[in-house]
Amino acid sequence: MISFEIPADALGAHDPQLSAVLAKAGALAAAQKQPTTILVTALAQDFPYINQAIWKSVPAKHTVKLSLENLTASACQPYSVSIKPTQGG
Question: pLDDT 10s digit of each residue in the chain, 89 long?
Fold first, then answer.
């Protein structure tokens, strides 16, 4: 569906625009008719901020069909968020 990179400087500063984009990603995932997976690739210490920003815009009734997965990024890997249909579901 969509995938985008998270600029490291925006993440480090907890930029309000980044928070808004993450919230929109959560809303987009929640609006899908089929079960959807949100894959976050980042360093472990950044998952709480990113995950909270994504979940903030997801209505409680939509959390059943959403899966949020965290993948720890390697040193040379960009931070990213991907939204895609859940496989095998």
Answer: 889 999 988 888 889 999 999 999 999 999 998 999 999 999 999 999 999 999 998 888 766 789 999 999 987 889 999 999 998 65
C-beta contacts of 30-35 below 8 A and 24+ residues apart = 30/57, 30/58, 30/59, 30/62, 30/66, 31/62, 32/1, 32/65, 32/83, 32/85, 34/65, 34/85, 34/86, 34/89, 35/65, 35/66, 35/67, 35/85, 35/86, 35/89
Structure tokens at 45: 């210490």
pTM of the model: 0.89
